[in-house]
Amino acid sequence: MKREVIHQLYEWKEKKGRKPLILQGARQVGKTWLMKTFGKEAFEKCVYINFENDSRLSGLFEKDFDIQRILFEIQLATGIMPDKETLLLFDEIQEVKRGITALKYFYENAPEFPIIAAGSLLGVATRQNDSFPVGKVDFLSIYPLSFWEFLNAIGKGAFVEAIKNKQWELLSSFEADLQGMLRQYFFVGGMPEAVKSFAEDGDMQTVRDIQKNILDAYDKDFSKHVPIAEVPRLRMVWNSICGQLSKENKKFIFGLLKEGARAKSFELAIEWLKDAGLVYKVNRTKKGLLPLSAYKDFSAFKLFLLDVGLLGAMCELPPSALLNKNSIFTDYKGALTEQFVFQQLRLNKCNKIFYWSAENSQGEIDFLVQNNDEIIPIEVKAEENLQAKSLKCFIERNPSLHGVRLSMSSYREQSWMSNFPLYATETEIIRR
Fold first, then answer.
1. What's the pTM value of the predicted model, to 2 decimals?
2. 133 and 166 housed in the same domain
3. Helix or strand or coil: residue 69?
4. Contact partners, residue 109, CB within 8 Å, separation at least 6
5. Is 1 a residue whose pLDDT tops 50?
6. Are residues 11 and 105 in the same domain?
């Protein structure tokens, strides 16, 4: 399976003043596969340690941070004595005491040793760790497969090249095919195991079973790692996401959790889900001016899931929905389409993602993206509906901006707005 992020690992390897690298991302997004694959491709030797499974090394960093002692114990456990040509892979590093802190001492005392660390709940652990090595490590976020990666996985990589090169006339001849593959992605999503299964046999029910198992694993993490008093509130937030995004107005409403629910009671639950990489918060911005963060409304936000396929599984979207071309975009069009677009926007760490709504609630822009010194207002349409009243009004108030509409319609240009097909979201927003 081809992952575009592997190019960033090669850049890290050749980086002057290289620091230990921490891979961040939710459980089962492919961190372990990625670091093992990279190790085999790019290094003479590779030592892989999973601190969750290998009890022999549970006390590796407790005594001290003497590098030679640590390397010798690794040799005893793995049979390999690491040297500067050996990639050290520390998986589930949050499970071993002082493991995250140890990365600082490798950087300061033995920078010649390349290290990649990862952990499913690393974000939770780093928030709780008083000795986090600030400035001594680099980070790389790992997400589910993008639509482009999905196309490559199912043997349709030629379409990716045509999209990258903006061959709109050529692509218009294959619009039905691309829309069909987009619907497939909406169902399958980007979790590696689900994509691999679909690419091999195309069985939708197997895909859904895999997604349900992933959701069950996340639920087990709640009970295992979250303070017991917080678990019920966390599950309330988690189980509400489908309903929250299915509303016409997708702003997160605490009153939907339970009658009289207040934000303060659920703040910790939301933060835990964010730190675990399971949800992402997109705040409202009050104005379309630079910098968008200066006009951030902390009280109004949307919560998105990490993956569109998992959202469909959470919403109990049946595989048969794909038999009807439009059903996936009618009953679930708001939830699934906005989730999809958000995932593509999230791929670029430089993007600052917000949404905008008027103070009187008359008008909303699905996403406002700040990319360096550029603000891009984005309206998302699940079908071929070309009405963009909110977007047009917003551009009239902010004439220096150029709007973007993402829909099932073909590429077209207007003086104030560009319409791009949904399958080209990565090209037009991410890769500018």
1. 0.93
2. no
3. helix
4. 65, 67
5. yes
6. yes
